[in-house]
Amino acid sequence: MQTHENRIAIVSGAAKGIGQELAIQLAQRGAMLALLDIADLSQTCERVEEVGGKAIAIHCDVSKEQDWIAAGELVRKEYGRCDILVNNAGIYPNVHIDDMDYETWRRTFAINLDSMFLSAKVFVPMMRENHWGRIVNLSSTSIVTNAVGVSHYMATKMGIIGFTRGLANDLGKDFITVNALAPALTATPGTSGLPDAVRESVVNQQAFKRMAVPNDIVGPILFLTSDDAQFMTGQLLAVDGGMMKVC
């Protein structure tokens, strides 16, 4: 299915987990990629090439403005434009409020939320040039759970929803859609260190009694970044195994 043929897609946090799986499937659907991470991206690039895709690897600390600016310059030089931006990078430190320091609070906000603003400032102008764009920001279903030790994380993920809605309003006239995705707790290297009690608490609140895997999350992102989602913007899409209930 060439649903993303000749689209230029930026994916942050692409070295592993959801970001890596998304990069592979975007390549399979015809997209050309710019992959961002502070970790080694060679494995993701190799897997993209194995499915016949093209990707450039960009070392990027998503909390730093200069890194985003440099990434934008590289994308402009290599591809000339940007069509799709998926803000997937994030951290999930489990720290109870009694033990949390301000540095942890600020670092979580910088990586999880500030990066959304910085990426938009760099890549939205490129999307405007072609009056077409898809932005997907990853939030989290943690905002409706009873998990402890994630108050800082929940705050960033609620902030992402607000920023997504506001940005969608700002960019509607440019035919650029902006949506947020709230994945369930997903089995990735980034969540491997969570206590078993946290995992069990989340899974027990779902209709599907298992943790999500990256492929569960990627399909909805592919939809949101395609032509099929052209009239969907400013929305939060929960991909949570039935955790969020309709009231």
Secondary-structure topology with pairs:
Blueprint: E1 8-12, H1 17-28, E2 32-37, H2 42-50, E3 54-59, H3 65-79, E4 84-87, H4 102-130, E5 133-138, H5 151-171, E6 176-183, H6 196-204, H7 214-224, E7 236-239
Parallel strand pairs: 1-2, 1-4, 2-3, 4-5, 5-6, 6-7
How would you characterize this protein structure?
The chain is an alpha/beta fold. The protein is built from 7 helices and 7 strands. The chain has helices at 17-28, 42-50, 65-79, 102-130, 151-171, 196-204, 214-224, and strands at residues 8-12, 32-37, 54-59, 84-87, 133-138, 176-183, 236-239. α1 (17-28) links the parallel β1 (8-12) and β2 (32-37). It is globular and about 45 Å long. The model has no long low-confidence stretch (mean pLDDT 94). One of its GO terms (molecular function) is 1-phenylethanol dehydrogenase activity. InterPro entries: NAD(P)-bd_dom_sf, SDR, SDR_fam. Keywords: Oxidoreductase. This is (S)-1-Phenylethanol dehydrogenase.
Brief sketch in words of this structure:
The protein has one domain: 3-Layer(aba) Sandwich (Rossmann fold). Helix content is 43%, strand content 16%.
**What Rg, in angstroms, do the CA atoms define?**
17 Å
Q: What percent of residues are in strands?
A: 15-25%
User: Helical content, roughly?
Assistant: 40-55%
Order of helices and strands: EHEHEHEHEHEHHE
What about the largest sheet? 7 strands, parallel
> Which homologous superfamily in CATH is the superfamily?
NAD(P)-binding Rossmann-like Domain
- The number of strands is 7
Give the tags.
247 residues; alpha/beta; Rossmann fold; seven-stranded parallel beta sheet; 7 helices; 1-phenylethanol dehydrogenase activity; (S)-1-Phenylethanol dehydrogenase; EC 1.1.1.311; SDR
